[in-house]
Amino acid sequence: xxYSHPVINSPKxxxxxxxxxxxxxxxxxxDAVSPLPEELFFSxxxxxxxxxxxxxxxxxxxxxxxxxxxxxxEASGAIELVDLLRxxxxxxxxxxxxxxxxxxxxxxxxxxxxxxxxxxxGRSIYDPAFGxxxxxxxxxxxxxxxxxxxxxxxxxxxxxxxxxxxxxxxxTWHPAEQPAVRVKTLVGDGGRRQIYNRFAGIExxxxxxxxxxxxxxxxxxxxxxxxxxxxxxxxSDYQVNSRDALLFELGKSGGTREDGFSSDSEQxxxxxxxxxxxxxxxxxxxxxxxxxxxxxxxxxxxxxxDDFSDTQALVALGFNDISLGYGFESQRYDVEFQHTFQLNxxxxxxxxxxxxxxxxxxIWTFSQNDWLTRNQTRAFGNLEWRLNxxxxxxxxxxxxxxxxxxxxxxxxxxxxxxxxxxxxxxxRATSAYRMPTLWEDxxxxxxxxxxxxxxxxxxxxxxxxxxxxxxxSFELSYLGNFPEVGLTVDAKLFHEEIKDMIAExxxxxxxxxASIAPLVPILMGGGIDPAGFLxxxxxxxxxxxxxxxxxxxxxxxxxxxxxxxxxxxxxAYGRQFKKVNPVEYRRLNERVPTQTxxxxxxxxxxxxxxxxxxxxxxxxxxxxxDGDYIDINRxxxxxxxxxxxxxxxxxxxxxxxxxxxPNNNYQxxxxxxxxxNRIFLEASLNWH
Length: 688
Fold this sequence. Notes:
Blueprint lengths: L11 H21 L5 H4 L5 E2 L7 E2 L7 E4 L1 H7 L14 E5 L5 E5 L10 E5 L2 E2 L20 E8 L3 H4 L6 E7 L8 E8 L3 E12 L2 E12 L9 E13 L4 E16 L10 E19 L2 E15 L1 E4 L11 E4 L2 E17 L2 E16 L5 E19 L4 E12 L5 E13 L2 E12 L3 H5 L1 E6 L5 E7 L7 E14 L4 E13 L2 E6 L12 H6 L10 E5 L2 E16 L2 E20 L3 E4 L7 E10 L4 E10 L2 E2 L6 E2 L2 E13 L3 E10 L7 E3 L1 E6 L2 E10 L1
Parallel strand pairs: 6-9, 29-32
Antiparallel strand pairs: 1-2, 3-8, 4-5, 6-7, 8-9, 10-11, 10-42, 11-12, 12-13, 13-14, 14-15, 15-16, 16-19, 17-18, 18-25, 19-20, 20-21, 21-22, 22-23, 23-24, 24-27, 25-26, 27-28, 28-31, 29-30, 31-32, 32-33, 32-34, 34-35, 35-38, 36-37, 38-39, 39-42, 40-41
C-alpha cells in the first residue's frame, strides 16, 4: 500500500524551519571544531563556469552550484558516473537496469529524465529523440573527470531549453595534466569486469589523450539485464600561438544491453544493440585580458536496435505472430559563437548565438525511415554588474526559436549581498522551458503482424502540437566560508512551479483499431480491459508546485580529512490527467521524495592507506512512466585504498564495498531491481 504524503498548500512552516537551519548551522559548526593549519586557511574559493558562462567564485555565482571535485570523486568509491550525483542535495538516481540510469532533481522523472541538461566539455549530450542521457554510452571514464559542476535549479538563461531541473557540467582533464600511460582494471560482484587504458602525451604545442575501455556487467541478480560496452575516445589540444587554441574531441562506443521482464508482452526478454559517436571542435581566440571568443561545432549520433517478435502474446485473439520495437536513430548538429569581455571595472558581459538541428527516425517508433528534423536558433547574454563592494547583480536571458513552435525567452535575475568577506546572501528568480522531445511530438508506434507489418493496434500516436513545459523558480540562498575551521555552508530555500506539463494519457473515447474492435466483447468477457488496446498520447496538462530547502556542508579539518554532507527537503503538490473521457487524475506529490541525504567522509593515515565511506538515503518515491513505487532506500559504501611506487611507475589498489550493512537489500526504480551487497577490487598503474 502506498504511503501518501499530506498535501500542504501553505509552505510557511518549513520555510521558517529551513531559515533557522541556515542561520544556525555555521554557528554550531564553529563551536564544534578547532582552528586549522595556516595552509588551509588560505585555500582558494572554487571558481565555477556553469552558472553564467563567466568565470566566477561561488559567492559571486547567481545560482546554487555543487562542485564535485577530484577528492570527492576518489573518496566516493563510485563505479558508475551517476552515483557521484547522489552527493548533490535534492538529487535522486534510478537504475532502470544494471546499465541504464536516470538522474533527477526533485523527482518527477521517468527512465529518460527529460528535464536535466548534461554537458561534457561544453557539449550537450541530451538525446533529442526520447530525451535524457544514455549514460553508459558516453565515452568517458571517472579518471578523466577533473570536476563536475551541478547547478541546482533551472538555468535555461545560460544553457537553453531542457536546463529545466538543473545542469550537470562535466569538465575533463587537459591531457597535459595526466600521466603518460595509465592502465586500470576492476573486477567484482555482479559479473563486473572493466579494463581502461589511457595514453596522454605532449608534442610541442600539441597535447593529446587516447583512451579505450571495456566494461562488462551482469546487472541485477534477478533481472535479464547483462551488458557489455566498448569505447574509444581521442582528445587533442593545440596551442596555435599566444592568442589561438584549438580543441578537438571524438569518440565511438558500442555494446549489447539485455532488457525486459518475464511474461511481459510489451517488454519481453531481449537484447538490444547500442551505437554512439560524437565529434567536437572548438576554436578559442584571446583578444586581450578578459576579452575572448570561441566558435564551437559538435555532432552527436546514437542508434539503438531494439525490436522483437512474440508468438504468444495475442494467440488467444487469433494473432499468432506479432512484432513490436523501440529502436531509433538520433543525431544532433550544433554550432555556437560566444564572446566574453570586460565592459568596465564593474561590469562583465558574455553573449552569443547558436543554431542546432535535431534529427530522429525509426520504423518502429515513428513509422518511417525518413529523418524527422527540428531546427533551432538561439541568442543569449549574461551581465555581471558589481553595484558596489557588497552588491552584485547578475542578469541573463536566452531567446530560442524552434521550428513549428512559438519562440520563447528564459530570463534570470539574481542579487548577491556580501555580508562580509566570508558570508553571502543570494536572491534569485528565473524561468525556463522544456521542449517536447521528438518522441513526444511525433510518436507513432504499433503492434504489427510479423512479416507483412500490418498494424494490429496502436500503442503510441500523438496528434497534438505540444507546447513546452514551463517552470518558474524563486530561491533565497546563503553561502558561508569559514576557513579558520575548514567549513563551507551552502543552503537555499526554494519555490518551483511547473506549468503546461506534458502528460501521457489514454483517451477512452477513441475508437478501437479495425482489427481489435470486433474482439472487444471477447476481451470484456474474458475479464481483459479493452482500454489496454487504446494508444497513449501526449497532451499539455497539469501543474506541480515544489517547496523546500537544501543544505550542503563541506568540512576539511586537515589535508588528510574530508567530510561532505547534503540534505534536501521537498514538499510537492499537483495533479494531471491520467485518462480522459471520463477523466482520471494522477497525483504528483508521490513522485517527489520528501527527504534525500548523503554523507561522504575520508581519512588518510600516516602509512598511506585511505579510508572513505558514503551513506545515501532517499524517501519513498513513485517513479513516473514504467517505473514503480519504491520504498525508502538506504545505501552504505566503503572504500579502502593504498598507493604504491615502483622505480618508473606508481599505482593504487582499492577494495570497494557497496551497499553493506544490516538492511542491504532495497528496490531501485523497478520492484524487480533488488540491490544486494557487492565487493570490487580495483588496481591502477601509471608510467610517467
